[in-house]
Structure formats: C-alpha cells, structure tokens
Design goal:
- The complex is a heterodimer of chains A (about 400) and B (about 425).
- With about 400 residues, chain A is of the alpha+beta class.
- Chain A is about 50% helix and about 20% strand.
- Chain A is elongated, with a radius of gyration of 33 Å.
- Chain B is about 50% helix and about 15% strand.
- Chain B has 15 helices and eleven strands.
- A six-stranded mixed β-barrel of chain B has the order 3-4-9-6-8-7.
- In chain B, a hairpin with an 8-residue loop joins strand 3 and strand 4.
- Chains A and B meet through helix 2, helix 8 and helix 10 of A and helix 2, strand 3, helix 8, helix 11 and helix 13 of B.
Chain lengths: ~400, ~425
C-alpha cells in the first residue's frame, strides 16, 4: 500500500498550523489515560481483596452477643443452656461459642514460635476460642491430624493467662511456621505461645480467615479448645440453606426470654459483617468506576466538540477537495488519521504520566506497582475512544457537498 | 458597561446552547468531584479544637520490647501501661492531665419499659472535661478528689440523659451501671468532635462516649478493656490485677501545657521518670518518649484516610481534564466569533474592551458551572454517605466556607480556562475578518 495515499504529510502540516487545539486534545487524552489506567488497576486490586474467601459458611451464618449483668448472672450455666437451646432449634446445623468473628475487624491475636525463648522468629495469628462443634458450625475441615474431642475443651475464666495444650491451626499458618517441611508434617509438632508456653498441634484445618481483612497474614489462625466464662460472650450459628433470615430474629427472641440477667445484642449475619469490613473497598471501586466513565465521556465529547469545530471551519476546503475528486472515505480517513496522530502523542505522554502517577501511589500510599500490560491496554482503549468520538464529525465532513466550494460561506 | 457585557454574554451563550451546555457541564462535573473530595479531606484533617490544639499533648513512653519497636521505624507504642498512666497521674506535673481508657458496660434504666442496654464508657480524670472543652448542659465535672476517693459518680451524655431520665436535669439522680449505683454529677450537651481526637486508636471518627466515669473504676470494678490491647510480654500471674500490672498497653494520656517552658519541663520529667523505671528493671529500650500536640498526633496517626487522599488527587486531575475541555471549546467558540470581533474592533472597540467582554462571558459560564458543581457536590456527598454508611456521617456536611470556595474555585478555573481563548480572540486583526466578508 502506498503510504502517500494516507496523506500523513499534509495532515501533519495542517496540524502544525493549529497546534493549540491538537495539544489540548493530546493532554486531555494523556490525563484521561493516566486516571483510567490507575483507577482500573486499583479497582482490580480491590476486587481481588474482596473476593478472598473467609473459609466459613458466609451465606448461612450469623452471630449474637450475650452480655450478663447483675450479681446473679452465671456465665457458665447460661452458656451451657444457650448452646443447648440454639443447637436444638430446627434449621440450625450447629452453633459454637466463639471469642471473635472472622472478617469482623476485632479479635485477639498472639505470636507463635517454633522454638521457646526470647527474640525468636515468630508468626502472628488470630485466636479463635471454640469447642468441638467448631468445625461443623464454622464449616471448616480438618485436613490433617484430628479434630477436638469434648475432653480437650476447658473453661476459660476472665483473667486466665495460660493456654490449652492442644490446638488446631490453619494450613497457611503451618506453612509459615514450618517452611522447610510439608504442611501435613506440622501435626503433632509443638509451637510456643507467650514465648515459652508449649502447644501441640493436634490438627490442621483448611482455612479460616482472621478478623482483620487489612492484615497481611489474613489466613493465620489458631483454634484453641476452650469455652469462655466472660461476662460478654458470643455465639456463632450456622443454619441450613435459606433458614438464616428466619432464624436470626427467632433465636434472638428465644435467648432474650430464656434469661433476664443479660442483654442479647449485636445480632448480625456474617454476610453483613463482610460487607461492612469491605465497605471502603466497595465504595472506592464504585467511585473510581463512576469517575472513569464520566471522564471518558467528557474527553470524548471534547474530541467531538473540537472536531466538529474544525470541520465547520474547513467546510470550504473540504468542499474544494471533494470537488477536485476526493472520495467521501478520503475525507473520513483524513479526520480519523488526524485524530490518530493526536491520540498517539496523547497516549505516549499518557503512558509516561500513568507510570509516574503509579510511582507516586506506590511511594506515598504503598499501593502495589502497576503490571506492565495495563499501559499498552490503556493506550489501545484511548486510541479507540478517540477514533469513535471523531467518527461522527468525520462522517458529517464527508457529507459536505462539493458544490459548497463554489459558494462563499 | 458590565451589565451590557453581561447581556452580550448571555446572548452569546444562548446562541450555541449545546456548546455552552457542554462547557457548563464539564466545569460543573470537575468542580462537583473536586468539592466532594475536598470536603471529605477538609473535615478529616480539620482541627477539632483550634484555640488550644498546640497546648494539648499526647504522651507516649517507649516501654516496648528490647528486640523490636512497637511500630516501625522506632515509634513508641501508641498507648500506655496502667502502671505508667497511674504513676504520671499521681505526679501531677502538668497544668492539667488525664489518663484515659475506653470501656463499656450495661446500663439498667429504672423504668419498667426501658430495657437494659450496652453503653460505651470513657474512664478519665476530672481534668478531661476542661481540657477538651466538654460542653455541659447540667451540672459539671466531678472534683479531683472524686478521682482519688474512687467516688461512684458519672458524667453522662445528652443521649444517655434522654434515654434514662427522659431529658430532665438528672444531676444528683442515681444511675445503675455495671450493676452498681452511680450518682450523676453532670450532663453533657451534644458533643460532636470531628475527628474525635482524644482517642483515635480505635478509629478517628467515632462518637464521643455515652458515659464518663472516674479512671480508677477500671481497677475498682474490673471494667472490661475496649479498644486495642497490645502486649510485648505476657502478664505475670493470673487475673485482672496481674493484667493491670503488666506491660500491656491499653491506656491513653493527654496533658495540657501552656507554653514551651512547661513542655520542656514535662519532657524532662518524663525522661527522668523513665530513667527511674529503668533502675527498677523496666523500659529496656533507649529513651524515646514523645509529646505530640493535637495536630501532630493526628498526623502521626494518619487520621486522613489514604483512599480519601487518592480520591482527592484523582478528582483534581478530573477537574484538569474538564478545564482543558473547556479551553478547547472556548477556543472553538471564540474563533467562530472572529467576524463579529473584527467588526467590533473596526468600529472602535479596544482590545481591553473585548478582553473584558469575553472574560465576563467566561465568568458567567464559570459561575453557572460552579452552581451546577455545588449541586453535584451535594449529590456526591450523599453518594459517599450511602457508600460508606455511618462511618462517615460526620464527614459529609457542606458548610458556608465550602460553598463559597466551590463558587470561587469554579470562577477562577473558568476565567483561567478563558484567558488564552480570549487573548487569541482579541488579537484578531480587524482587516483580515472584514476582507473575507
């Protein structure tokens, strides 16, 4: 194909005669690309975070807090009675008393190490205090070793400082603690809490996330076999599919009327808990998406506006070219190519700005750095936006009758 | 003359309705987005107590582990141990001082129909109220003697007073909290602090507490820990008292120091105190104590969320695109008027006349865009409220300053956007335009 047919030379020279308009479009395209690419990157990162699974049965679980007051409140008797009541409610798969809820934002963490003593390498992990009903209630699986038995479980009083002798840990924690051996071999090994207190790993569970969704070791969790005798305790309840919404108020009511020496509060589904914990990320995604769409429209309209204007101004020349034999497609091609040249400058500047902004985000806000392919993808998108935007005015230009050349405008 | 230019401007805007609408919308969108994010950032970074923020200091003592700092790089813990909090309070070396802790407890209203409920409790000293300008509706703070005597007295919030006492003056009445009877000594008025600077360890934008109780009740009634408890070393021994004597941090402390001398003296006192404690075998780290005034502490605790800042910078870039757009459109518009401008120049209008005329035109567009932008900012803030829920309800109000700055920002940006197109338009040679007609 003969390159001269594309008339790059004349287009370029014509552009040079009206630089300002072209420069404005190029900068708009560059900044738009910068925002869009970085936004998409942030959006993808955030959705990845939100899609991480908690490891428990989110859809069918809820929890409720029980706070005793008054001198006659008996935490131990209340817990036993409550758990029996809940577990015997039709529609409930199982229930467990637990000290913290995965993904809820508050909980208890401790450091664990494989050698006793001060200043040894350690791993932080969330602590879930549960009884032998935990695996069924939380919908987690013991994938190596053994589950808790009723005889493992003890009562923990307020102010108790020591820990049960046997625990279950997550697979990811097993891998972090014993990086040199396969995770299955962690079963039966000893790890140390509070620097020196030994715990034997009785089993390994597949997955249960910690309460803090922003934490880098989100899958480091330890299950300790104990029921707490605190004045405030929490029940985690898993229901059969579709029964959750019916059972939530029912169980709240049943607990409240079973014992007047306490208040029943904080009824919430695990789904809602997750939604609340990730609300900031969800909001950021929505805000950035909206910004991106509006920005693209604004930039496209700007291109349409300036192109229409330049078509209007060149009506006479276009008429003349048509009169001299240029086909309609040659006119369309002229404007498309002109826009392509401008966009090319724009996306090249845009690529530089995109990487620059990402570097700022990495340095100032510790965001991860952009994967390289986002940049060419962004360039391609902006090229397309430009071509689509300019097509309308170009089509209009092509429809200018050759006879116009003979008239004075 | 101005009104004539204004008439001309409106006429010109009406002549190209689509182009004008496009410009106004572009400016409006840019301003709307920027104002929304500026408002959120402005409120997040607001000084909650401007007249004395540089006299209130948050106290940090580095009581952490010998092997690692509490926070990288070498930051002392953001809270204090019970031992240190009570020792510093007993020393009373500052003009005013209060150690604090957050807790919670069940309140049992007297009436039969009101159910017991869980209330948030702040444990503090008498100085807390004058230090942080707590507004009293009835009564007053408790006396300092009540702190040391461990009197069962409380100051309650307006909402607690409404809920438990039906809004009457309840000073002197009895309220049952955590199973004990307390005497109400004061009732606070509505107290909104944005950020709630006196304790940001559990998030900067929480509500002020429902009940305020003398600090030593923590020990007396074994009040539960709220907020964060961090330990580098496990408590020695069992039980609540062992926890209080441990190296776990769960307490905050503020002092009021009126000038630099007092600050220097207090710093000396803190360092001496830590050295004394070192002699007792505590504080294994090198001296690393801090006094941060309110705004320094807000900065240190990164009260302004990263996301809010990112959004603000994105919205500024958005505004930039909108303005570039407007410049382009104005260029088109004014060069379409070349003939008219040439004619006016030919019949005697000076360049500066034309410049003013077109500046008025861009200003009209700017103000219109600003008003639209303000409307969009309201929509944007409502949107943020819906997206983020109750966490941000105190961060999404527009005040007069923000309204005025929105209009001003729109005006300045549109005039700036108009300068180059206007300048180009004014430099049109009258002859060139007249010839071609």
């Amino acid at each position: 194909m003969n390159i001269n047919k594309w008339e790059i030379g004349p287009i370029f020279r014509a552009l040079m005669r009206n630089k300002v308009g072209a420069v404005l479009i190029a900068i708009q395209i560059a900044v738009t690309m910068t925002i869009i690419v970085n936004s998409i990157f942030i959006i993808i990162e955030r959705s990845k975070l939100m899609q991480r699974e908690s490891g428990i049965d989110d859809a069918n679980s809820f929890y409720i807090t029980n706070t005793g007051f008054g001198d006659e409140f008996d935490s131990k008797a209340t817990t036993i009675a409550d758990l029996e009541l809940i577990r015997n409610t039709p529609g409930v798969i199982d229930a467990v008393q637990i000290n913290a809820i995965p993904n809820s934002g508050s909980g208890w963490s401790m450091s664990f190490q494989t050698e006793p003593g001060e200043n040894k390498e350690d791993q932080g992990a969330a602590i879930y205090m549960v009884d032998e009903h935990a695996t069924k209630a939380l919908d987690i699986e013991v994938i190596a070793g053994e589950d808790f038995t009723p005889s493992d479980v003890r009562w923990r009083e307020n102010g108790t400082r020591d820990w049960p002798d046997t625990v279950l840990i997550t697979k990811v924690l097993a891998e972090s603690l014993f990086p040199d051996t396969p995770w299955q071999e962690a079963v039966g090994k000893t790890m140390y809490i509070s620097q020196t207190e030994p715990m034997i790993i009785k089993g390994i569970v597949d997955k249960i996330q910690a309460p803090w969704v922003g934490w880098s070791d989100l899958e480091h969790s330890v299950l300790t076999p104990e029921i707490t005798q605190f004045s405030s305790t929490r029940y985690f309840i898993r229901t059969q599919a579709g029964e959750r919404d019916r059972l939530m108020p029912e169980i709240e009511e049943a607990l409240a009327s079973a014992n007047k020496q306490r208040i029943i509060r904080g009824l919430r589904s695990v789904e809602e808990t997750r939604e609340r914990s990730y609300r900031g990320d969800a909001a950021m995604i929505k805000i950035l998406s909206t910004t991106m769409v509006i920005l693209t429209i604004v930039t496209a309209l700007g291109i349409v506006g300036l192109a229409s204007f330049s078509v209007n101004r060149r009506k006479k020349q276009i008429g003349t070219r048509r009169a001299l034999g240029a086909s309609q497609s040659a006119i369309v091609r002229y404007f498309m190519l002109e826009n392509f040249l401008i966009s090319s400058v724009g996306v090249i500047i845009g690529a530089v700005l995109t990487i620059g902004l990402n570097m700022v985000l990495v340095n100032v806000f510790s965001l991860p750095s952009l994967d390289w392919y986002f940049v060419p993808a962004g360039m391609l998108v902006l090229w397309l936006v430009g071509q689509i935007a300019v097509f309308g005015p170009a089509k209009k230009a092509a429809n200018i009758p050759p006879a116009l050349a003979t008239r004075t405008v | 003359m101005f009104s004539y230019y204004l008439r001309l401007a409106l006429k010109s805007i009406r002549r190209n309705p689509i182009l004008s609408a496009l410009m106004i919308t572009a400016i409006g969108l840019g301003i709307g987005a920027s104002m929304t994010t500026i408002t959120v950032n402005y409120l997040m970074s607001a000084n909650p107590i401007p007249h004395k923020s540089d006299q209130l200091f948050y106290v940090q003592l580095d009581s952490w582990s010998p092997f690692e700092p509490a926070n990288e790089p070498n930051e002392p813990p953001d809270q204090m141990t019970w031992t240190d909090a009570t020792n510093l309070m007993k020393a009373k070396k500052a003009f005013r001082q209060t150690a604090m802790a957050s807790s919670g407890g069940v309140v049992e209203p007297q009436g039969q129909d009101e159910k017991p409920y869980m209330a948030s409790i702040r444990l503090a000293f008498a100085d807390f109220f004058p230090m942080f300008d707590a507004p009293f509706l009835y009564g007053s703070s408790w006396q300092s003697s009540a702190d040391d005597n461990r009197d069962y007295v409380v100051v309650i919030s307006k909402s607690t007073n409404d809920r438990v006492f039906g809004g009457k003056n309840s000073v002197g009445e009895t309220i049952r909290i955590v199973g004990k009877n307390f005497r109400v000594i004061g009732v606070l008025n509505d107290w909104l602090l944005v950020p709630r600077f006196y304790d940001v360890t559990t998030g900067a934008f929480g509500e002020t507490e429902e009940i305020f109780m003398p600090f030593y009740m923590k020990q007396e009634l074994e009040m539960t820990n709220s907020g964060n408890t961090n330990c580098w070393k496990s408590p020695e021994g069992e039980g609540f008292q062992a926890f209080l004597q441990s190296e776990c941090v769960n307490f905050q402390m503020w002092v009021e120091l009126r000038n630099d001398d007092e600050k220097a003296q207090y710093m000396d006192f803190m360092n001496n105190y830590v050295n004394e404690q070192k002699a007792l075998g505590r504080f294994p780290r090198p001296l690393n104590n801090r006094l941060s005034n309110v705004m320094e502490w807000m900065e240190n605790q990164e009260v302004v969320a990263d996301d809010a800042q990112i959004m603000m910078w994105v919205s500024f870039m958005f505004l930039l695109v909108c303005l570039l757009n407007t410049i382009g459109l104005l260029l088109s518009k004014f060069s379409g008027k070349a003939a008219e401008i040439g004619l006016r120049r030919a019949v005697g209008a000076s360049k500066s006349d034309l410049f003013i005329q077109h500046t008025v035109e861009t200003a009209v567009i700017g103000v219109a865009g600003g008003i639209l932008g303000l409307g969009l900012a309201f929509v944007g803030l409502e949107g943020i409220k819906t997206l983020y829920g109750e966490f941000v309800q105190n961060l999404v109000g527009l005040d007069m300053t923000m309204v005025a700055s929105a209009i001003l920002l729109a005006l300045i940006s549109s005039i700036l956007a108009g300068v180059y197109p206007t300048w180009r338009a004014c430099n049109i040679e009258p002859a060139s335009q007249l010839k071609s007609q």
